Amino acid sequence: MHGYSADKQAYLTRLRRIEGQIRGLQRMVEDDAYCIDVLTQVSAATRALQAVALGLLEEHISHCVADAISSGGPEADAKVKEASAAIARLVRS
Fold first, then answer.
1. pTM, two decimal places
2. In terms of Cα–Cα distance, which of 92, 72, 73, 6 is closest to 84?
């Protein structure tokens, strides 16, 4: 079971909302909307995706990483490295 399983429906709802934002962006470009208005909506969609990513990361750390650490051994080290790599990817994006 994944760490986000308890909140799966909430994540799906948020992702569907973001999907709607992206479709709205496509319409804006098709309709030749003002550049700044499009950029504003791109920024909002980006922030929404970042919020989902941070939530998933928090779930991963509090569930998967914490469980691995309490079990100990090489899996614990692997989960910590995996979480660190995920954080690094988020910081770069």
1. 0.85
2. 92
